[in-house]
Design a protein that fits this description.
The complex is a heterodimer of chains A (567) and B (318).
Chain A lengths: L34 H29 L10 H36 L7 H20 L30 H29 L12 H32 L13 H12 L1 H22 L6 H15 L14 H13 L1 H15 L8 H24 L1 H7 L3 H31 L5 H19 L2 H6 L14 H31 L65
Chain B lengths: L1 H26 L10 H34 L17 H34 L2 E3 L30 E8 L2 E5 L5 E2 L2 E4 L4 E7 L4 E5 L4 E5 L4 E6 L5 E7 L11 E7 L1 H13 L7 H7 L17 H12 L7
Parallel strand pairs in B: 2-6, 5-11
Antiparallel strand pairs in B: 1-9, 2-3, 3-4, 6-9, 7-8, 7-10, 10-11
Classes of the chains: A mainly alpha (567), B alpha+beta (318).
Chain lengths: 567, 318
Amino acid sequence: MTHSSNNTAIDDSDRRSPDYPLPDWRQYLRFSQDHKVIGVQYMVTTFLFFLIGGLLAMLIRGELITPELNLVDRPLYNALFTLHGTVMIFLWIIPFNAGLANYLVPLMLGAKDMAFPLLNAIAFWIIPPAGILLMSSFFLPNGPAQTGWWSYPPISLQFPAGQPINGQLFWIVSLILLGISSIMGAVNFLTTIVWFRAPGMTFFRMPILVWSVLSAQLLQLINLPSLTGALILLMFDLSFGTNIFKPREGGDPILYQHLFWFYSHPAVYIMALPAFGIFAEVLPAFARNPLFGYRSLAIASLGIALVSIFVWAHHMFASATPDWMRIMFVVTSMLVAVPTGVKAFGWTATIWRGKLHLDTPMLFAMGGAAMFLFGGITGVMLASNSFDLHVNNTYFVVGHFHYIVFNTITMAIFAAIYFWFPKITGRMYTEGWGKLHFWLTFVGANLTFFPMHPLGLQGMVRRVASYPPEYQDWNVIASLGGFLLGVSILPFIANMIGSVLDGPRATNNPWEATGLEWTTTSPPPRENFAEIPQVIFPPYNYGNPRAYGEEPLTQTGEEVSNDENDE
Amino acid sequence: MPQLLEYILLTVFIAGLIFVSHWLGQQAYTWMPAQATAEAQRVDDLFSFLVAIGAFILLGLVGMMLYSVLFFRAKPDDYSEGHPARGSAKLEILWTVAPVLLVAWIAFQNINIYEQLNILGLQQIVQLPFGMAPATAAIAPPQQSPETAQTTPKPAAETVQVIAKQWNWLFRYPNGVTAQELHLPVNESTRLDLKAEDVLHGFYIPEFRLRQDAVPGRNIALVVTPIREGKYRLQDAEFSGTYFALMQADVYVESRPAYEQWLTTVAQQPQAFRNTATLEQQHPPQTLFKTSWYPGSSDPASIAASFADSFKPKDDRS
């Protein structure tokens, strides 16, 4: 579906990609230093892990369809949810976002590549071995780690005594490797964003996606060392006989919780911020409105990052934390609602009085934004510690964060894949299959994750393989929804593979979107732009046809002032 | 005239929102389990308040999005601009300040209720091992003045030791009785001393609306005041290993005489001990996928030994 082909009388042949063959697929298997190749490598690799993580999730839902144990035994169940969480966070969302940013940030800034291409390639090539190492722990005599993605000591130190090679160790080593990869990526992104902007690309002309990548990668750099450090200490306790976290030997298990959540709460924003950035790119393009309140949304990204550094102990309201700490973290956690609120209002105002095109990326973006509101509101509820003490570690929390990580972030990721698919592959996807994918996903996601809220309110604890029979009804719905989600991925895969091989050629700018990535060919050449672009427009310059190539760009094109057009 | 119509529609929309969100706030009470402590009432009030506010925001914004989807659709090939507004200082300040005030209000409500929970007994006594200073000021030891004002923690009539050990709950009562059931006298405050023997465990009774982790090596206590007789379920709520899901105990809230009666009966005739984890290990349920993975530190012999040990009357109130 190419819109511009039957769109205007203007000759757009100059915007159409030349009919050259698609890039050689073998380059994606090689050690390439091209940020676009690396970006695709990230995205495809992490998608495979997403499929693995999803399969684990469906086994979990299969077990939970009945109160009794009948599908998997308890050690296997515990391994399933441990690896499901670990894979989805550390091998799907975080590295997928890194891959997407890898592809887009240099293009959006008008740069030829990332600042450190070799480091970039190394950061990616750490991921497949780390992921394979993690999954290979299924073949160990006692299976993979079985203590959840938090791996709180002392339970995580109880793993088979006298077995130096065990699943917990594999888990720790894998996560340390993935952490190193992320830190390498963070250095690269920050340097690129600060130093590799094209002439005229001031900070306040950067797309919000770049702002959110900047904010998220700052968090990686500030907070991730804490997790890596904690994991190294945990490994010492596990394998080398130290007693840092062992309460019986004078260690402090609560210290691990602080170190763990000091990274792992900001990790939620490391995952969510790029999703917010995707909404900010997709919504204006399909509403044909400039992004409403660009500056406040840009600053809100940094604001979310800043506040999220100081909220970690809200995961520990039921741990042995003192009162003053509980109250302090109630207040800081609630403050996060302010910049996220600014974002949600900005998105809504962007759509308002627009000319909406409900193509697949827009459906995913709007669906994701709407479900984010739900997840955000339950988040404020959980930040209220008096209420949290009731639902802490119940399915209410599981429902809440799946509304964020799946119903918001993964929906945003799908929006991004459809939106930039023509740019990345030079081909169009099939719109009908995309819409089918959206509706299956939207219905499946709500069926799966909404029932978890009433279950949690009623007191169903998370991480149980068997449960009291009174909780069965909602669990059946959640399981059926989970299987529907499993099915929903099939039209997506078919669409992607079919369209890459045989989709119609994409124009340079099929959505008539603003942004530098749409001014180059689809797919872009090795050095991205024929010549270094000169940025003369404010971002999201919808309403100015020259900004998205409706009229030929001239250097005399004056910048439309950033005026306030109050209605 | 169309302007007037818009204002009327907006008013109707907001009125509808207020009505629906208030109704949902009232419904919220029915989504919760029974209220078995005085604290539960407060927590449910807070939840109802949060649901009402949340519903107002959610339905308001999603309503605007749906309205846009229905009425602001472009013609298929119309890629012209919608409206040129890039922002509005007034609006942006408004929707920054409004959430600040809103979360301040929510935080105030929450802290207010949390304070009340404290007064009613949720104040936990965290005592660090190894001679470190306590992390919080311990509550005053149970004072014998019965009708102290609500500003001090209620004196606890009884102290029950709660011992969490993979994967059983044990309760040691003041008269030395040890049992696998938690019995609490209704309308009286009971102090629960939480002790974890091996790993972290979570003390959680949904009807009581409170949850607290037990940490090995730390003495953590809470005071509960059940107000509703009945049988409830205590469930471990901090993942504790292979048989985590089985780590449950029955909780009975009963009248003082019934409680005393039970204590005497058990003192004379100790209950038989039932270790659900070991039972399941001996008779594993039929599952499609089976592993031979290490099930955690629960080989029947050591469990049995440790249980025998646990039930010897001993004084470890150090």
